[in-house]
Amino acid sequence: NVGWVNLDGEFQIVTAELRKLALVIILVRAGLEMDPTAFKKIYKTILKLGLIPWFVECSLIAVCARFFLQLPWMWSILLGSIVGAVSPAVVVPCLFRLRTKGYGVVKGIPTLIIAVAGIDDAVSVAGFGIISSIMFSTQSLGLQIAQAPVCIIGGLGFGVVWGFLCKYVPEPGDAYVVPIRTLMLFGGGLLAVFGSEEIHFEGAGPLGVVFAAFTASYFWCGQGWELEDNPVSTAFEIFWMIFEPILFGITGASVKIAELDPHIVSIGVGSIYVVAVIRILTTVAIAFGDKLNVKEKIFVAISWMSKATVQAALGPVALKTVMSNENRTEEEVHYAELVKMVCILSIILTAPLGAILISVTGTKLLKKTKQQLEPMDGTLGALGAQICLVDQSRIAHYCIGWRRSHRPSLHDISIIDEEEEREDIEGIADEDTAANTLSNAQTATAFTITK
């Protein structure tokens, strides 16, 4: 906006591909964060809370765009399908911080919110792909009508098949199991997104990416991996650290502040906030029978107001598609620019506010679960629990507690497990020290009781 960087012209080809790469990474993360066990238990709740609020927000945004921004109905619905998506980039990190501290863990609220966010994003991206295919496709009317069922069934089918393939490739005991599984999911995601675009069924790709990651995670958990300690998920978290600033940077650079219409901006701001409040109230209203109290319902509803990832990835796509058409009209360019402008506004208005509200209200609205200090084998008793409190880091294998969160690094996905390759003298020494301390303490206690 100050003229130092120009991303227009031929460089738009590069930025378009970078957006797709970022979309694959964040969708894989969303699929890996969905707990298969919890999903089976509360899948009805997940589907209800994932589809109804999204449909309400999508419809209201479409109505506002039609009557306030004078967009045609198809363009309005396209905009609604984008703005209705929840941002995993905002929701997931905030919920991880709350979960590591024990907030809402008992009722599985973090799992519920992350799972719904994944379903929400999948529906948004699939809806956008279907609508854009109908709008910009030159195919026959019959093929356009078949877009919706084919995209949904094809996306789900590809996801299940590719996730099942990831169960066997590579073998679980392979020395390079982590990097190969990472490449399998990333390659499958690229195949789904770029392949669906080539066959003109764009809505199937993102849906296939989410369910491929979810299916693979389900099988990997059955083979012994833990959902919260998945090295493939850590790898994609590292990838997202790289692509997040790229995605939001090129999206923000495409917005020309001097070209913004104050009237359109005011309408967009009012519509986004009003619709967000209505979505929150709708979520609270339909969350009956889900074993959540009023505070938890409010927190769940607030956590889904953030917009960022899908809006940044898909907001400029319509404009790119229109500009690549030699027979484009000025009206189509204007409509596409309005769509991009409202998407950018939704990011600016809701992403920071949503992150703040999740972090602040989570500690006040959710119940905190205290650390479990019960011994694993039942031999330490209350005295052992006290020792765990004093030096939990050295004899952590005696206790069950919440994991400490840390910033992921490449060391977390190293190919070779160093602990298995060397004899940890310090660990043995710490174990001996802990055993001696426990023995001395028990002797002292027995002596006191005898005395």
TrEMBL record:
The chain crosses the membrane at residues 49-69, 75-96, 108-135, 141-164, 176-195, 207-226, 238-258, 264-286, 338-360. GO terms for molecular function: antiporter activity. It holds the Pfam family Na_H_Exchanger. Keywords: Membrane, Transmembrane, Transmembrane helix. One of its GO terms (biological process) is proton transmembrane transport. Its main location: membrane. It is a multi-pass membrane protein. InterPro entries: Cation/H_exchanger_TM, CPA1_transporter, Na+/solute_symporter_sf. Residues 13-355 form the Cation/H+ exchanger transmembrane domain. It is found in: Membrane. GO terms for cellular component: membrane. The keyword Isomerase does not apply. It comes from the Eukaryota. PANTHER family: CATION_H+ EXCHANGER DOMAIN-CONTAINING PROTEIN (PTHR31102:SF1), PTHR31102. Belongs to the monovalent cation:proton antiporter 1 (CPA1) transporter (TC 2.A.36) family. This is Cation/H+ exchanger transmembrane domain-containing protein.
